[in-house]
Design brief:
With 677 residues, the protein is of the alpha+beta class. It contains 23 helices and 26 strands. A hairpin with a 2-residue loop joins β20 and β21. It starts with a strand and ends with a helix.
């Protein structure tokens, strides 16, 4: 049984990783994962009550500041009170330190105030360092503790207090910055409606959205959020879809239009026939993808996580090496220890550990706000590298809904008669063309006899002693058309066309401007595919392809290891290609469940232009990730060198550590607020 619980009080990713490792050692728990950004602990267990009890015990031993928040306990945690408490303790520590350093006191009074000041300023740091150390684990808390004790032993009392004081101030500011980012993301996850109003026997009934079934009628009034995906059967209104698609201009919705859950009705009252159960609805998928995205880590993030396990130990070894070299060169052990301590402080890995996952998470949140659901930071990373994007045609670049374009009569029958005869045969067919013809028919249909459907050809039937055929007998395929025969004589044909989406031209144009090659893969005829390709100015087209042909073509392209390939599709036949591509992108509204499941990215509103949006956000996020890595590494290396040479002191080292961490966090948050042009 998979369980997900909120966890508060973890102030750094390294702490989260250390705790995650300890929880995974429990026999009763499997696959424990702590999502630091989302503040979520997920794990598998058979006995939930016992598992939670054991996890709480491990938390108390490893991270006493952390706390599991069970649903009924949520109101007990008050972030503002916690922040006020932390600032108050910090202020007391600073006041005691100033008294110890600035006022002439007896030796016993000085040491009392100094020790109390150091404890108030960094008691959390010392406790964490001790608890992990007795388990054989070390992290940046131990580095700070060693620096405080070492500086005090060398008589550098002011620097000793400044180290832990500035570090604690930095952690408080870090938490404020991270929580600001978290709050921005949480707004997206709070789009879930609390209820749905179902119409039963003419009466309105408020129920939980999960209880509503396909076919039920729900009513949505002004100011309310649409609870489930459906089709409007009565009413019209302006609809706020900004939280789903990023579009600030309200959409006009009328009878017959499809509507997405999570949208907000601005005016008017809508009666909606539910077409999707709640767990498969757009809003539910968005929330699930946002909450679970952090579980899929990118290569960069995974690399940082792996390095962090050994980083602190390596730093201590190098600090000892610096101490030994300086002592050998200068002959002064105090100077050697002091420079070794500087090395420890500057080397704290906080900037790396928090800025990389926060950058990716901000990018994922920004994409979600723009109607692009990316299933993990690894896919966001891959999206930034795309060189080729291959599109399916029908339902992706076109609407997938065929319209009657022209009717040709070759006999003595009117156009209305041709449509009527075609509709008689098509009335029980599930083919997309049949649906379009039936919608165009104006006459009342009658039962027919001797119906026989031949796959790939059409439908034979009898009506009023005559034999009819509806389908395709000619080889010529310049157009999508349905032919009508009466007693083996062709009496007419209906020409249909699949309308190109309004956004498809912009989508292909944007990709070209970004230097990305476009390909269209379709099962349609050469003439139809060529016509669409010329309108959209697509670089390369492939036609008359079966699903396995598409798969084989993508497989051939992927032999070039440097060629990152994206595939965009909507149907169940696209699922194999979506899984094979480096990045599979599916349609969110009309996409089949199989294609959505197989894809790495889902476009909420079926808008192909959002492909370029996803790539731009991905490129921007990846740029920020590397900015943070280079910035943090550059500043730290500089101060490590200056500290080892004795050019900078302990205070500079603290500023280097805390300052670069805050800069990296603030830079990471740019990915959340980046606006795609």
């Amino acid at each position: 049984m998979k369980k997900k619980i909120k966890i508060e009080g973890l102030d750094c990713p390294n702490c989260a990783r250390a705790l995650e490792c300890e929880i995974n050692k429990l026999d009763i728990v499997e696959n424990a994962n702590i999502d630091f950004i989302n503040k979520k602990l997920t794990f598998d267990c058979n006995d939930e009550k016992l598992a939670i009890s054991e996890i709480k015990r491990v938390i108390k031993q490893t991270e006493p500041s952390a706390k599991l928040i069970i649903e009924k306990e949520k109101n007990k945690t008050n972030k503002i009170k916690e922040l006020i408490f932390d600032i108050s303790i910090l202020a007391i520590g600073i006041a005691l330190g100033l008294c110890a350093l600035l006022i002439e006191l007896p030796t016993w009074a000085f040491w009392l105030l100094f020790v109390l000041s150091a404890l108030f300023l960094g008691y959390k740091t010392y406790i964490k360092a001790f608890l992990l150390l007795i388990k054989g684990k070390i992290n940046e808390n131990l580095l700070i503790t060693l620096s405080v004790v070492g500086a005090a032993c060398l008589g550098e009392y002011m620097e000793s207090l400044m180290v832990v004081g500035l570090y604690t101030i930095g952690k408080i500011l870090e938490n404020v910055a991270v929580n600001k980012s978290r709050n921005s993301i949480e707004k997206l996850t709070k789009m879930q409606p609390e209820y749905a109003v179902v119409l039963e026997n003419g009466k309105e009934k408020r129920v939980d959205p999960s209880q509503v079934k396909i076919g039920d009628i729900i009513i949505v009034k002004p100011g309310e959020r649409v609870a489930l995906d459906g089709k409007v059967i009565k009413g019209y209104c302006s609809l706020d879809v900004q939280s789903l698609t990023g579009e600030s201009i309200p959409a006009n919705i009328k009878e017959g239009d499809n509507i997405l859950s999570g949208s907000i009705v601005l005016d008017g009252v809508l009666n909606i026939e539910v077409t999707t159960e709640y767990h498969d609805s757009t809003i539910s998928k968005i929330v699930n993808l946002i909450e679970n995205a952090a579980e899929r880590k990118s290569k960069t993030e995974t690399l940082i996580s792996k390095i962090a396990k050994w980083y602190t130990l390596a730093v201590i070894v190098l600090a000892v090496l610096v101490w030994g070299i300086v002592w050998a060169v200068t002959g002064n052990i105090d100077t050697a220890i002091y420079r070794g301590l500087i090395f420890l402080v500057v080397s704290c890995p906080c900037a790396f550990a928090i800025s990389v996952p926060l950058s990716y998470f901000s990018g994922l949140g920004n994409a979600s706000r723009n109607g692009v659901l990316i299933k993990g930071s690894n896919y966001l990373d891959a999206c930034a590298k795309l060189k080729v994007v291959a599109f399916d045609k029908t339902g992706t670049l076109t609407t997938g809904k065929f319209e009657v374009k022209d009717i040709v009569s070759t006999g003595d029958y009117s156009k209305e008669d041709i449509v009527f005869f075609a509709s008689l045969g098509e009335q029980n067919s599930l083919h997309p063309l049949a649906k379009s013809i039936l919608e165009f028919n104006k006459k009342e249909l009658e039962p027919v006899k001797d119906v026989k459907e031949v796959a790939g050809e059409g439908i034979y039937y009898s009506y009023k002693k005559d034999n009819y055929f509806v389908g395709r007998k000619t080889k010529e395929q310049a157009n999508t058309k349905v032919e009508v025969y009466k007693n083996n004589l062709k009496i007419g044909e209906i020409i249909l066309s699949d309308k190109i989406k309004d956004s498809s031209l912009d989508a292909c144009s944007e990709l070209k401007n970004m230097g990305i090659k476009t390909i269209m893969l379709s099962g349609d005829s050469k003439e139809v595919v060529k016509q669409v390709g010329e309108i959209l100015k697509i670089d390369e087209i492939k036609y008359q392809l079966l699903p396995q042909n598409k798969y084989e073509y993508i497989e051939e392209l992927k032999k070039d290891k440097k060629l990152f390939l994206g595939y965009v599709g909507d149907g169940i036949n696209d699922a194999p290609s979506l899984m094979l591509a480096d990045v599979g992108i599916s349609m969110g509204i009309n996409g089949s469940p199989a294609s959505i499941e197989a894809s790495d990215i889902v476009l909420v509103d079926d808008n192909p232009k959002k492909v370029s949006t996803a790539i731009k956000i991905s490129k921007y996020t990846r740029k920020i990730v590397w900015e943070n890595i280079i910035l943090s590494a550059g500043i730290k290396f500089t101060f490590l060198l200056l500290g080892a040479l004795g050019i900078t002191g302990m205070l500079s080292a603290v500023f280097a550590d805390v300052g670069v961490t805050l800069l990296a966090i603030l830079n990471s948050m740019r990915a959340l607020f980046y606006r795609v042009k």
